[in-house]
Amino acid sequence: MPTQTEAAEERRGVPLLPLRMLNEVAYCARLFALEWMNDEWADSADTVNGRTVHRRVDRRTRQTLPHPAEDPERPAVVRSVYLGDEGLGLVGRIDLVEAEAGEVVPIDYKKGHPAPTPEQAWEPERVQVCGQALLLRAHGYRCERGILYFAGARRRVEVPIDDALVEVTLRYRDEARRLLAAGRLPPPLVDSPKCPRCSLVGICLPDEQHRLQTG
Q1: Which residues make beta-bridge pairs with 146?
Q2: pLDDT of 51-67, one tens digit each?
């Protein structure tokens, strides 16, 4: 979770979209709107476990990322890297960045296991790490891939930062901006397997909302 100062920076003027909200809007537009627009939050077993996974990696290191124009070959492993870029419209904290041979790799820690998909990761997870890569690129670094580390399996999954993923990521960024400009909650998902695992299902009430709408 961001500090109070970071949260204030995110909301100053036209807010930069936090990386964690990029994940949320890719998962469910209504979840994004409830959290970011309505400031709703509720813990679940998943969110508590997620904070436990991040507890160690969130500790800042004394080492800083080498400047992209200075000593690009110097290896570095830096935890808790906070970046923002107004042109990109994104801001957030990267769990871990590995730098070596002139390239940086963002590593995003997840509590569970790789997804049963060809990419081994769900789209919101890949979109979030792509947002991290785009922030690093915006600050002058070469970044061609990201890593999702699944603590439950102790496995790394590589995510290529290709043009297709960048396009999808920026589309979700623009969708978040559209929702903010509209200022209205989007409708809930219908019979979605995402809902039972959502920490805000008790606030969203998708089944109840659908019954009200359909009479």
Answers
A1: 159
A2: 444 455 555 555 688 88
CATH number at 153 reads 3.90.320.10
214 found inside a domain:
no
What share of residues in the chain are helix, strand, coil (percent, to 5)? 40, 20, 40
Burial of 139 (C-beta count, 10 Å sphere; 0-12/13-18/19+): middle
Q: 96-149: per-residue pLDDT in tens?
A: 999 988 899 999 999 999 999 999 999 999 999 999 999 999 999 999 999 999
Q: Which domain holds residue 152?
A: 4-188
Q: Structurally, how many domains does the chain consist of?
A: 1
Please indicate whether residue 183 or residue 49 has the higher confidence score (pLDDT). Answer: 183
> Using CA atoms, how far apart are residues 162 and 150, in angstroms rounded to an integer?
21
The C-alpha angle 69, 75, 78, rounded to 5 degrees, equals 90
